[in-house]
Amino acid sequence: MSTGLINTLEEVGALLDIGIALSAEKDHDRLLDRIVTEARRITSADAGTLYLCESEKLVFKIIHNEIMKVFLGGNGEPVNLPPVPLRQENVSAFTALKRKVVNISDVYQAEGFDFSGPKRYDQMTGYRTTSMLVVPLENHESDVIGVLQLINAKDSEGKVIPFAPYLEKVVTSLASQAAISMTNRQLLEDIEQLFNSFVEVMATAIDAQTPYNANHTRRVAQLAGALARAVDATNEGPWAKEYFDEQRLNHLVMSAWLHDIGKITTPLSVMNKATRLGDRQEMVLLRLESIASALRRDYLEAKLAAREKGSLVEAERVEAEWAEAWADWQRIRDLIINADNPSGRITPEIVRELEALMERTYLDAAGNRHTWLTAAEVEALSVVRGTLTEEERRQMEGHVEVTERLLSKVPFPPKMADVPRWAAMHHEHLDGKGYPQRMSGDDIPIEARILSIVDVYDALTAADRPYKKAMPVEDALRILGFMVKDGKLDEGLYRIFCDQKVWEKID
């Protein structure tokens, strides 16, 4: 087999290896850097620049210069050089506009292009730009997405030489593979960004249904991300060795965005229940006014009858009974209004007084008899903590199971398989008394533990809850501490949350 054929086969093999490597690269910035690295290696070029087409300009993304020891852009840092306008006098712009490869033996002898930029660079640095190979990056749709510029090919002894003509096809092939890899990577990123945006829109829409959750999901997502980064920063405690890389962090934040997605099926009458009576409040107050009208009617009729009899004793008795009845009505009205306020304390004595109103009746204007309060109203007013009855609380807690069912219908890619699982676990407690699955201990991963802490913290400190005022941070931390002592929340994460003041790290 001839030496030329062997070299050709080696170059083809190298191109195939490069194509595989480019396809496998997951990080966009490292992909761009690798394109320049491989192009320089296969052409023995000293320097190389990768531009991307953005807004009718070529933007510097990667710069390599072996002799000058300059390597920029490979870690995603911006290259602070002005973009190149798409005008044909510039060789890289010409390549992008005309989709043509340009191979120049010596830029100082070349005509037809403006090389004032490279010459200025040479004058400033002492570098000598000589040979140049400029290739367009075309994707599978024949769109030019960038330009690869290689400078100063070298022979085996390190002497600068022109780029061999056959390298034009080699680099063009490499550029084609690179462009497709870049486009595929961008497409995947666009799809992921679209999915992330859709998740945020859905979560925001659900929150927007009610002031109860107006900004809850966004804050939980921010707090979850901040606590994960705080875990990364800690060097002691049970989570010192835990690390959230970018992908794991993004998946945690996505699970936070999705954690309340099940509330889409929770009745607004439950979500928006700002008082114990909720939407029954107006009906009860109207009934009390109707009872007051009936008492006034009875009083006026009795007063008229006493006047017709001309009995002073009877008139005094009527006035005394009216004063007593009216004071009793006002007391009961105050009792109901105070009990309806979620900040009001419900004692066994208050419950007994409320239950007595289920037996007490009045006649409406049509002569129909009704109780002062119904059993359902007494149940609502007797709630000791918060505003929800047991049935309403079951409805609210059911949102976690709905979250799990809804997300089970979404075809999450394998790398995101844990996202729906974490989202559905944010109410599980380490003592096994959470819901819905009563998981405990090591069965609950750190991601779900993070969600549990930040979800409770935001619920306590949120200023947009209709049934309570925002709790001061110190009081919220005290309650979280009690939950830690009760074995519900993770102590290590709680310490990190407090020590690093995670709540101060979000908007």
Explain this structure:
- The chain has three domains: 186 residues, Beta-Lactamase, CATH 3.30.450.40; 173 residues, Hypothetical protein af1432; 96 residues, no CATH class.
- It has 18 helices and ten strands.
- The two termini are 68 Å apart.
- The longest helix has 43 residues.
- Helix 1 packs parallel to helix 5, helix 2 packs antiparallel against helix 5 and helix 6 runs antiparallel to helix 7.
- Helices cover 53% and strands 10% of the residues.
- The protein is of the alpha+beta class.
- The relative contact order is 0.08.
The name of the CATH topology of the largest domain is Beta-Lactamase
What value does the average pLDDT take? 87
What are the secondary-structure elements, in order, as H or E? HHEEEEHEHEEEHHHHHHHEEHHHHHHH
**How many separate domains?**
3
User: Roughly what percent helix?
Assistant: 40-55%
Q: Which short descriptors sum up this protein?
A:
507 residues; alpha+beta; Beta-Lactamase; 3 domains; eight-stranded antiparallel beta sheet; 53% helix; disordered N terminus; HD_domain; HD/PDEase_dom; HD_GYP_dom
